[in-house]
Amino acid sequence: MKKAENEKGYLISYGIAVLLTVAFLGIFFMGTDGIAQINNVACQDYECSVTGTQYGEAAFTSNDCVGLCYDDGFEVDIYSPFFYGYLYPVTGSKYLLGTAYDYKFGWTGCYVERNGRSIIVKVSYIEDDDGYVVIHKCTPCDGCCR
Q1: CATH number at residue 58
Q2: What single DSSP character describes residue 121?
Q3: Range 80-84, long-range pairs (CB < 8 A, 24+ positions)
Q4: What angle is formed at CA 32 by the lines to CA 26 and CA 38, rounded to 5 degrees?
Q5: Where in the sequence is the domain holding 129, given as residue range(s)?
Q6: Which residues are CB-contacts of 62 (< 8 A; sequence separation ≥ 6)?
Q7: 105 close to 85: Cβ distance less than 8 angstroms
Q8: Which of 74, 82, 92 is nearest to 121 (CA)?
Q9: Which CA distances in Å does 26 have to 19, 32, 34, 130?
Q10: Residue 146 domain flag
Q11: Are 111 and 57 within one domain?
Q12: pLDDT in the model for residue 34
Protein backbone atom coordinates (compact mmCIF):
# COMPACT_ATOMS: atom_id res chain seq x y z
CA MET A 1 0.00 0.00 0.00
CA LYS A 2 2.77 2.43 0.94
CA LYS A 3 4.65 1.55 -2.25
CA ALA A 4 1.60 2.45 -4.38
CA GLU A 5 1.29 5.82 -2.60
CA ASN A 6 5.00 6.53 -3.18
CA GLU A 7 4.67 5.68 -6.87
CA LYS A 8 1.60 7.90 -7.14
CA GLY A 9 3.44 10.80 -5.49
CA TYR A 10 6.42 10.21 -7.76
CA LEU A 11 4.20 10.29 -10.87
CA ILE A 12 2.53 13.51 -9.75
CA SER A 13 5.92 15.15 -9.06
CA TYR A 14 7.26 13.94 -12.40
CA GLY A 15 4.15 15.26 -14.21
CA ILE A 16 4.50 18.68 -12.59
CA ALA A 17 8.19 18.83 -13.52
CA VAL A 18 7.39 17.99 -17.15
CA LEU A 19 4.65 20.65 -17.30
CA LEU A 20 6.94 23.30 -15.83
CA THR A 21 9.70 22.39 -18.27
CA VAL A 22 7.32 22.68 -21.22
CA ALA A 23 6.03 26.03 -19.93
CA PHE A 24 9.55 27.45 -19.50
CA LEU A 25 10.63 26.25 -22.93
CA GLY A 26 7.51 27.82 -24.43
CA ILE A 27 8.32 31.15 -22.79
CA PHE A 28 11.95 30.90 -23.92
CA PHE A 29 11.03 30.29 -27.55
CA MET A 30 8.31 32.94 -27.58
CA GLY A 31 10.71 35.75 -26.74
CA THR A 32 9.41 39.17 -25.77
CA ASP A 33 6.70 41.36 -27.26
CA GLY A 34 5.57 39.04 -30.02
CA ILE A 35 8.92 38.32 -31.59
CA ALA A 36 7.77 34.74 -32.25
CA GLN A 37 4.86 36.14 -34.25
CA ILE A 38 7.11 38.37 -36.32
CA ASN A 39 9.64 35.60 -36.94
CA ASN A 40 6.95 33.56 -38.67
CA VAL A 41 6.82 36.30 -41.30
CA ALA A 42 10.05 36.80 -43.26
CA CYS A 43 9.39 40.54 -43.67
CA GLN A 44 6.89 43.01 -42.23
CA ASP A 45 6.09 46.42 -43.73
CA TYR A 46 5.13 49.45 -41.64
CA GLU A 47 3.53 52.80 -42.45
CA CYS A 48 5.22 55.56 -40.47
CA SER A 49 4.70 59.15 -39.46
CA VAL A 50 8.11 60.78 -39.26
CA THR A 51 9.38 63.64 -37.13
CA GLY A 52 12.88 64.98 -37.60
CA THR A 53 14.42 66.86 -34.68
CA GLN A 54 17.60 68.85 -34.26
CA TYR A 55 18.82 69.27 -30.69
CA GLY A 56 15.36 68.23 -29.47
CA GLU A 57 13.32 70.73 -31.52
CA ALA A 58 11.07 69.65 -34.42
CA ALA A 59 12.75 70.32 -37.77
CA PHE A 60 10.33 68.54 -40.16
CA THR A 61 7.47 66.05 -40.39
CA SER A 62 6.83 63.53 -43.13
CA ASN A 63 5.60 60.02 -43.93
CA ASP A 64 7.72 56.98 -44.71
CA CYS A 65 7.52 53.26 -45.16
CA VAL A 66 9.82 50.87 -43.28
CA GLY A 67 10.35 47.14 -43.73
CA LEU A 68 11.85 44.75 -41.17
CA CYS A 69 13.21 41.43 -42.43
CA TYR A 70 14.55 38.65 -40.24
CA ASP A 71 17.69 37.62 -42.10
CA ASP A 72 18.95 34.48 -40.38
CA GLY A 73 16.85 34.32 -37.24
CA PHE A 74 19.15 36.72 -35.37
CA GLU A 75 20.05 39.70 -37.55
CA VAL A 76 17.21 41.99 -38.57
CA ASP A 77 17.47 44.07 -41.72
CA ILE A 78 15.63 47.40 -41.87
CA TYR A 79 14.71 49.06 -45.17
CA SER A 80 13.27 52.44 -46.10
CA PRO A 81 13.32 54.55 -49.28
CA PHE A 82 15.86 56.72 -47.41
CA PHE A 83 18.07 54.21 -45.52
CA TYR A 84 18.86 50.57 -44.86
CA GLY A 85 20.48 48.98 -41.85
CA TYR A 86 21.39 45.99 -39.73
CA LEU A 87 19.93 45.48 -36.27
CA TYR A 88 20.46 42.95 -33.51
CA PRO A 89 18.18 42.07 -30.58
CA VAL A 90 19.11 43.27 -27.11
CA THR A 91 18.83 40.31 -24.78
CA GLY A 92 15.79 40.48 -22.53
CA SER A 93 14.38 43.69 -23.99
CA LYS A 94 12.05 44.93 -26.70
CA TYR A 95 14.81 46.79 -28.57
CA LEU A 96 16.80 46.12 -31.71
CA LEU A 97 20.08 48.07 -31.98
CA GLY A 98 22.44 48.64 -34.87
CA THR A 99 23.48 50.96 -37.66
CA ALA A 100 21.75 52.30 -40.75
CA TYR A 101 23.10 53.88 -43.92
CA ASP A 102 21.22 57.00 -45.02
CA TYR A 103 21.56 57.31 -48.79
CA LYS A 104 22.17 61.06 -48.50
CA PHE A 105 24.03 61.52 -45.20
CA GLY A 106 25.95 58.28 -44.60
CA TRP A 107 26.11 56.02 -41.55
CA THR A 108 23.84 56.57 -38.56
CA GLY A 109 22.92 54.88 -35.32
CA CYS A 110 19.56 53.12 -35.42
CA TYR A 111 17.28 51.39 -32.96
CA VAL A 112 13.82 49.91 -33.08
CA GLU A 113 11.50 49.68 -30.09
CA ARG A 114 8.68 47.16 -30.36
CA ASN A 115 5.36 48.22 -28.82
CA GLY A 116 3.06 45.26 -29.39
CA ARG A 117 2.62 45.16 -33.17
CA SER A 118 3.72 48.79 -33.67
CA ILE A 119 7.32 49.97 -33.73
CA ILE A 120 9.26 53.17 -33.14
CA VAL A 121 12.41 53.62 -35.21
CA LYS A 122 15.00 56.22 -34.20
CA VAL A 123 17.81 57.12 -36.56
CA SER A 124 20.55 59.29 -34.99
CA TYR A 125 22.93 61.16 -37.26
CA ILE A 126 25.98 60.85 -35.03
CA GLU A 127 28.75 61.02 -37.65
CA ASP A 128 28.05 64.68 -38.54
CA ASP A 129 27.33 65.60 -34.88
CA ASP A 130 24.62 68.01 -35.98
CA GLY A 131 22.06 66.82 -33.42
CA TYR A 132 19.62 65.29 -35.91
CA VAL A 133 17.38 62.44 -34.78
CA VAL A 134 14.62 61.14 -37.03
CA ILE A 135 11.77 59.31 -35.28
CA HIS A 136 9.43 56.98 -37.19
CA LYS A 137 6.22 55.96 -35.38
CA CYS A 138 4.96 52.98 -37.35
CA THR A 139 2.02 50.62 -37.60
CA PRO A 140 2.05 47.35 -39.57
CA CYS A 141 0.63 47.14 -43.07
CA ASP A 142 0.57 44.41 -45.70
CA GLY A 143 2.84 45.05 -48.68
CA CYS A 144 2.54 48.83 -48.44
CA CYS A 145 6.26 49.43 -48.97
CA ARG A 146 6.46 47.70 -52.36
Answers
A1: 2.40.160.90
A2: E
A3: 80/136, 83/108, 83/110, 83/123
A4: 90
A5: 40-141
A6: 49, 50, 52
A7: no
A8: 82
A9: 11, 12, 13, 45
A10: no
A11: yes
A12: 39
